[in-house]
Amino acid sequence: MALLYLGAHLAFNAPAVIRGPDISLKASALPWYAVLSLLRMTVAYLLALAFSLFYGYVATGNRRAELVLMPLLDVLQSVPILSFLPVILLSLSVILPQSAAAEIAAIALIFTSQAWNLTFSFYQSLKTVPGEFREAAAIFRFSPWLRLRFLEMPFAALGLIWNSIMSWAGGWFFLMAAEMFTVGSRDFRLPGLGSYLQTAASRGDIHAVLLGIVALIVIVIALDQLLWRPLLAWSERFKLEGVEAHDTARSWFRDLVSRSWLMERTARLLWEPLLARLDRRYHHPDAVIGPPLEETGLRPLSWPRRIVVAATLAVIVWLALRAVDMLSGLPAAAWGGIVLGLLCTLLRVSCALAVALLWTVPLGLLIGTHPRLAKLLQPIVQVAASIPATALFPIVLLFLLHLPGGLNLSAVLLMLLGSQWYLLFNVIAGATAIPQDLRDTAALLRLSRRERWRVLNLPALFPYLITGAITATGGAWNASIVAEYISFGGTIHSTLGIGAEIAAATASGDYPRLLAATLSMVLTVVLINRLLWHRLYALAERRYRME
Description:
Layout: H1 2-11, E1 18-19, H2 30-61, H3 63-78, H4 81-95, H5 98-127, H6 131-139, H7 144-173, H8 175-179, E2 180-183, E3 186-189, H9 193-203, H10 206-234, H11 252-258, H12 261-282, H13 303-327, H14 332-369, H15 371-386, H16 389-400, H17 406-432, H18 436-444, H19 449-483, E4 485-488, E5 491-494, H20 498-508, H21 511-543
Parallel strand pairs: 1-3
Antiparallel strand pairs: 2-3, 4-5
Helix pairs in contact: 1-4, 1-13, 2-3, 2-5, 3-21, 4-5, 5-7, 5-19, 7-10, 7-15, 7-17, 9-10, 9-16, 10-11, 10-15, 14-15, 14-17, 14-19, 14-20, 14-21, 16-17, 17-19, 19-20, 19-21, 20-21
């Protein structure tokens, strides 16, 4: 509340009129636009990966930190991306040049669409590392660095790679909003593939939309062949199994690169010496290995830290009180509309999650357990997840509006498109991690299909399903802003929902209403996470570890 108020307060002092560069719809502009978007995506992903590793490691390594960081992560992933983008843009435009503010805001928006599922995946992996492996690391007196390198990162590798693929798909999904955003008379735009697609969609230029989507598909397929498939083939070595799988993932590009003279020299002269130097520096064999996390008590803070914490809390409380003062001016009718919209959106999110579960679990298990099938379907799934539904949705909307349910049906559909991929990629990661010896045992016991689902598949997938469900519901809440309030051909189509409340407040620059709607959504998502998903996380950690 304090941070959102601070951003909104700065936003009042933003320039009255802002105009970005014109976006060309010529086909010749597409290669340069694609390069710019790819650079923004890469910077955002590297920041998201570094954030996820640091955040997950600190949250699982210190009980006091976990008590603060995990509820904070709930808040961060539940804040709707498109509702705080105007606050970031306008506040940055006060202190930075317009182009720099737009670039930072775009990278921040892409970062938020990539970071949370990576962080939840790494956190879930660290919490479910088999106990015997942790005991072995303690017996060998591994330092935290060696434990991270030889136990925790290898165990988390599969989930991180699949969620990285999902993070890039999510980044492409929100690229249109990141590179072109309007707040009243202020038009923030950046040259890129997302702004190209949004300009084409707003003008109804189907030819340009298709050209932009073709360029996006080419980039996604190239990334699949040159990056993700080699990483998945490399990660086969980290599967937790006693026998080798019958059919493993393969990559022609990895086979080609691994045999190259340059790669061999780079590994021998740079990479291996660097790792050896880090091992020597951060391994302390004489260090006392502390008790497990579960037995660690909470030591009291020192007085200097207490003073810093008290001063920080005082500033936060003062800003929060200022936010309450801003909210007190809202009429009762506005609060009633927010509450009613919240209930309607919650119902749509639940429907979208239920539909996503029905098809992602069986398909994800099929892809994850059949590498040959994955070789065919993986690029198709990546392309489908990466195409911004917001580019095609205004066109599809024209047909859906004439069907029973109208915009309510189309809103659920767009939420589904914004959330189902989080579930699918996590299910694929969980299915890929099922040990081959357990599959062989299920075959030897001649378990029926129903028994195999009950005693092997669902228990093995359970931790990954929870991670996917948390991030999928966050994606559905975020997608509600573009699903419930749509502008196409100069006409606004909207339905009752919290997403429509946020979008309308953004378009009109009504900051008190925007703050109230955003905080209401945050509070709802945090309560659902704490009361439902995190209890299921605890169940997965206690009962469904692979040990």
